[in-house]
Amino acid sequence: MSDNKKPVPTRKGGLGRGLGSLLEGNKYTGKTAESTTVNEVNTIADIAIEHIQTNPYQPRTHFDQTALEELAESIRIQGIIQPITVRQLDQNSFQLISGERRYQAAKMAGLTTIPAYIRKADDQQMLEMALIENIQRENLNAIEIALSYQRLLTECSLKQEELGDRVGKKRTTVTNYLRLLKLPPDIQIALRDNVISMGHARALINIDTIDKQLEIFRKVVAEELSVRKVEELVRNVQNASKKPDPQQKLVFNRYDEELKGVEKKLSSQFGTKILVKANNDGKGEIKIPFVSVDELNRILEILNY
C-alpha cells in the first residue's frame, strides 16, 4: 500500500443488526487467506481480494457508479464496517455469496484484503442465499426483485407459497412482482431505471394489449403523469373495450331474428314449442320439451329414431 493511503482497519464494530445476529457466536480470527483452510468455516477472516471471485448468481445487474465511489471513499476513511459473505472453494479461493457492492468499493478504495464471513454452500444454496439476501436488503429495483423471485421459483424449485415464506412476503406481493415480467421490455427498462414507479407499472399491467400499454406508457413519460392519473386512463380503456360495437350489435340483432324464425319453423314441424338459444360466439342448444311418453314417441317418429 502506498504511503498516502490510510491503514485499513481489519474490523470495526457495528456489523448491523441482521448480520450481527447471523454471526452470533462466530469468532473473528483475524487470519488472512494464506492461513485459512477449507475446514475453518463459520468464521470471519481477512481475505485477499485477489482470491475472491464474484458471485455468478448475483441478482443485481446494475451498480450505480457514483454510489460506488461514495462507498469507496467511506471505506478509505472508516474501513469495512460489515464483512462480506463468501464460500471457500479451495485453499486460497473464495466466491462471493453477498456483499458485492462492498467488494467492488473495497477494490476501488485500494484495499488488498477484506473481512469476510466464511461459510459452506453448494451452487443451489449459493443462488438461494444470494437472491434472498439481496431481496431482504430492499435495495434492488422492482424488476431485479421480480427476476430474483422468478429465479427462486424456477432454479430453486420453490412454489409461490414457499417463496413467500422464504423472503418474508405475502403471496400476493410476490405475485404482483412476478406480473411485472409480463410487461413489454420498454416498460420494464423504464421501471428498472426509475423512470416510472411500481404503481405506474401495476396499473399498466391491467391493459390487455401491448400496443395500448405502450401508448399510455409513452404518455406517462412525456407528461409525467401521476399513478392516480394512469389508473384513470386504464379504467377508461377498460370501459371503452366493454362497450359493444354498433355494427356488431346490428349483426347480433339480425341473428336473434333468424333464431326466432328457426324456433317458429321447428315448433310448427314438431307440434310443440321448440327453444333455440345461442351465445355471441354462435354456440347454443335446441330444446324439444314433451309432457308425456306418447308425445316423446311422436317426436322420435318425426326424427326417424
Automatic annotation (TrEMBL):
Source organism superkingdom: Bacteria
GO cellular component, one term: chromosome
Single GO biological process annotation from the record: chromosome segregation
Region annotated Disordered, chain positions: 1-21
InterPro entries linked to this entry: Chromosome_partition/occlusion, HTH_ParB/Spo0J, ParB/RepB/Spo0J, ParB/Sulfiredoxin_sf, ParB_dimer_C, ParB_N
Keyword Magnesium: no
SUPFAM superfamilies documented for this protein: KorB DNA-binding domain-like, ParB/Sulfiredoxin
Keyword field: Chromosome partition, DNA-binding
Start and end residues of each ParB-like N-terminal domain: 45-135
Gene Ontology MF term list: DNA binding
One Pfam family recorded for the sequence: ParB_N
Family: Belongs to the ParB family.
PANTHER family: CHROMOSOME-PARTITIONING PROTEIN PARB-RELATED (PTHR33375:SF1)
Name of this chain's protein: Chromosome partitioning protein, ParB family
Gene source species: Pontibacter lucknowensis
